[in-house]
Structures
1.
Amino acid sequence: MRNTLKWIIFVLFVITLNCGKESNVESTAPVEAEMRSLDVASEKKVAPSAPRAEESVEQPSVENQLGQVFVPIPSSSERLLEYQVQLSYQTQNLIKTRKDILGFITKYGYIESSSAVNADSPYMSLRVHIHSEKLYEALIELDTYGVLLSEDISTVDHTEGMVWQKIKSNREKIRLARRSNANNQTSANSKNWQAIEEAVTDSENNLDNSEHEIWKIKDKVKWATLNVNFSTPIPPDKIQVPTYKNAFIGILNVFLELTYYLIWMIPLFILAGILYFPVKKIGKYFKK
């Protein structure tokens, strides 16, 4: 009887334990579902920004690492740059290239100097001024006239000089206005009239010089300078056969020159022959 009672108590204890576990599972299930819903919502919020992060981490392709083609024109007007370009080309037909260059100069600017030689090794060199805003187009077109051998592009920055000249010009304008006002208030009989007049003249001259310097800077920035040289390929060595006819002609010319001088010397020979005998007799007389 006691054993059966123990078994009954043991079975009831096991049943209560199983019921407790099931209740715990049921109680935690809603909490886990709620947590999962929160995780899904957070993933949805983060998802749109993920591609941006990946894009920022991606490295640029090899083709785009060098960037755009070099353009020798400033992207902004803050700097006042004077362009100076040195170019050397090799062309197969210098005569045709010269005709093309004449059209090129008419299209882009004006020529300052030019020289060309059409000999065994023909070449042509010229100094041209072209519009700075058309410099890139001009360089591209020049590449069609021959093979580029060397290139040197440099700039001179006139920004600081322009700022200084404008400061001087504005200052001289103020001085000129002040001195002109003082000159108008001073009579011709005053002692200071001549000094004020000279000061006004100096201000006018200084203002003219500043305006002239500003114009020169603008002109240098507006026109780029191109020094271009064209040459032809070096020809291979050739066998040079001398003209033997010239040798015979030279010998004949020397012979004729000698006969020409002999004709001039004939009177001298005759005179020496005439004087020889009398001089000989006189010499014998003095020896006796």
2.
Amino acid sequence: MKKTAALLLFLQIFLSCNGQDTKVTYVQKLEYGLKGTVKKVTSYIYRAENGKIPANTGNYIGIITMSLDSLGNVITIHKLWDFDRNASTKIDNAEFTSRFFGKGKDISFKETSRYSDGDLTEISHKYVWSDDYNYTIITQDDNTHSTLITLDKEYRLSKSVFNGDDMQSVEEWETISKNNKIQEIKTKITEDLEGEVTVTYQIQAVQEYDKYENPTVIYGYHDLSKQKVENVIYKEYKYYE
């Protein structure tokens, strides 16, 4: 479960993209750096077996679909993970659906989840802002879990701190851009599980973009030296006319 949670945290930043005007009013799509009037974005995640780049067909390990309204408020996020697709007995499978309510900074959402063949659960969450660039995702009816989010001055994700179940997980992101297009995102993940601290790094390197300069192909590495491609993400976009 720890490995699965770390990968989910790592992959969510793959949705991030490019810088935005710091004078604009906050809207959720800015966190992910999406350009243009994005209506829907679908991400297909594949393992790169032995460093070989997979084609955008066949056995993905995850698919993430996000839908947004014309202003850039998130409507739904659906995540389907199958980390053991080729095994006869599937484990580490998970499905999440988040439905968002509200606009701008007044946001709440309900998330339904299921792990493997377990029961379906539903949890309600709410954003509580402390200032313009920091908010906490509060889990209603559960004061033992919380996630503190820090945004940079362009409202992109900068830091996430999750607390709960005798553990803390901290993600810190460094974004490298050129010509107003993201080139690379470096992620430092620090986990404290019952006093045992581990630090890992992830690199996301954009390879291709669409006409709006949103990334369409991303290589993921598990080391700062980028010696071996571990994951590949293919992204497809639909836009409002």
3.
Amino acid sequence: MEYTHQSVKDYVEAKKRGDRATTDRIVAEVTARFDARTTDGSEIVELGRAMERVSLGEGE
């Protein structure tokens, strides 16, 4: 899948590496932006899809 948000691309790369600390940080940052209404919501939707599709450590 092609991701458009850099945060989601970074999330996918970290999750494939098995880097839980980075994935948790990215989720927290994206959630904070959504909660603060500083995003249109497309970023958190794309992140949710990536969370469902990519397994932790699948790139190892």
4.
Amino acid sequence: MKRIFVFSYHGKETYHTGYYRLLSLANTLAENFEVYFIHGNINEVKKGENKENLIEIPLLYRNGILQKVYAFLKKKSPYSAKLLVIINYLFTKREIFDLQKETLFYFNKSEIKPAKDDIIFTSFPSLSAHNLGYELKKKYHSKLVLEYRDPGVFGYNLIYENEWMSRVRKSFLKKQEIRNLESADLLLTISDSIKKFFPERYYNNVHVVGNGFNNHKIDISLIRDNKQKFILSYLGSIYSSQLEDLTFFEAVKDFTVKYKVSPDRFLLKFIGINDVPVLNKIITRFGLENYTSILAKMPIEKAYDELYDSSMFFHLKYGNRKEVITTKQYEYLAFQKPILLPVSDDGDIAESIKKYNAGYICNHKKEIIEVLHISFKNHLEGKPLKINHTAEELYELSRQSQEEKLVNLMNEL
């Protein structure tokens, strides 16, 4: 049986979308191949779980002084933490949290190690995962698959980077990325938009395996309406680029004032977000504290529990980036409640909402207030809008449909 080694930079304790996506891919691949799912861990490593053809191998990131300094700076001064990442890379050519040394050590002492006919599957971000894939291919002569959930040095600035940091990163890492691209036997990305960022010479080797909702975790029968309260929900991380345009928050404030909406009837809920002090300041600035609930990162099952009785979902566009299509869009679509894009990205998110006739795309504060008013009024009158998808559409939106494409590509490889 063909063997595939799937590497996740993130571990379970991060509750990171990338981890859940790769775990789902590994489980699907294990129906056809022998799969080793190797992921990083910040905390003490417990023995991995083994299923019939899926062997989990958690590896502990180095947790020395450098990592502790980074963790401290990230809480106190994110700018300084980013600067530390750059300085460390200049001297070591490694990320602060890097699994290469730990992985090679594990394979050297273990009977389990890649062989010539095996496949190494690594996902970006981060580049350290791709670098690890390159080193493993060079050492064991295995096949190499590089996946891009975000563009690397070719494409828009990553959503968690400002412009100067992106320029520095691309300047430092371009040589390594080209080396990795040249070494890959197969390149994957999540959308046609990101595929277009690759240099033309790689096009024939790039295949699209999109995001999707986790159909094994969502129970469609649990979707319901909260008759007492209108809940406007946002799922997942928020980045500084999403908080540059405050039109949405201005509109929510004006809506509550104009229509005398009380906090016991309307809730703005952020589910499973990273710690973003700027968001707290914005909520305070517009006097929305009593209307807002912010829930920290949590297991995906608990996050979904928070979505079942939502009335509407919303996005916040990623600055001027048009090519971002996150997993949350597929999850929103699966929960079949209307989606609000307060200020259009004029790109992939807007196109997805249009394609599935799934909600509202606005461009001005007045439009947002009107959508909130109509939706809130219909909700109180017991006539909430529901977005019904056919079984075929739900399958198309699921990870299962995309993972079947991946299985076929692995068989061909």
